[in-house]
Amino acid sequence: MKENLAHLKELQTIDLQISQLESQMAAAAAGLAARKALIAEHEAKAKDLAEKIESLEQRRLELEGEVETDVARIRDRQGKLMSVQTNREYQSLLKETDDAKKANKQREEEAIQLMEQIEACKAKAAEEENLRAADETLLAEETAQSEQQTTELSAAKEKILKQRAAKAKVVAAAMLKKYDMLRERRNGIAVVEVVQGVCRGCHMNIPPQLFNELRKEQALISCPTCNRIMFYQPEAE
Ligand SMILES: [Zn+2]
């Protein structure tokens, strides 16, 4: 029994190493995914800005067209002013010319504001592009690092999986089954030490009688609270 418990303890150590390797691999993958998400964000912002620039530009062109139309109107009305017959007609042409001039002045003011907005959007778009390019560079570096790391981690994992297989063979089948089941249900930890009568898995006290049994190391004893396989760990000095 003592031997079996020793095997299980070793198996637990191996399994913890495996899960550590797996979380390192997952962290590397998550890092790359986060970088890619940042790049996508910059792309989305740049696309929004490009659309905004286009619609502002469209409005600006529209205004330009309107200004040209009114310039032609003003020229036409001014030409007619020379040959009017009545004062009423004269006043009417004068008002039309005046209105067109006022409208054009407003359009020109709006066009200036549009130009400013377009410039601001272009500056923001350039900034997004710079950020995206910087993130692309980082992604390339991180991908290379991650590939190397993954190769190393995979090799380490492969080696340790072999160790696990060898260790699993020497553990009694029923015990291995119980161990694997516990590991699955108890967050990867199936074998725990008991220090000063406290289970290190669930931090609950175990009954003194059970603790005495545990010290004898003659039977496989489970924690009454978390059900993990316990082993006695003498207190460190
Ligand atoms: Zn426990």
Mean pLDDT: 95
CATH class of the largest domain: Mainly Alpha
Largest sheet, in brief, is: 4 strands, mixed
Output the number of helix runs: 4
Percentage of residues in DSSP E strands: 5-15%
Find the count of extended strands (DSSP E, 2+ residues).
Answer: 4
Strand order of the largest sheet: 2-1-4-3
**Radius of gyration over all CA atoms, rounded:** 40 Å
Which term fits the overall shape? rod-shaped
- End-to-end Cα distance, whole Å, is 27 Å
The CATH architecture category of the largest domain equals Orthogonal Bundle
Bound molecules: zinc ion
CATH level-3 fold name of the largest domain = Helix Hairpins
The overall number of domains is: 2
Q: Given the helix and strand composition, which structural class is it?
A: mainly alpha
Q: Which sequence of SSEs, written as H and E, runs from N to C? A: HHHEEHEE
Looking at this protein, list some descriptive labels.
4 strands, mainly alpha, Helix Hairpins, 2 domains, 237 residues, binds zinc ion, 4-stranded mixed beta sheet
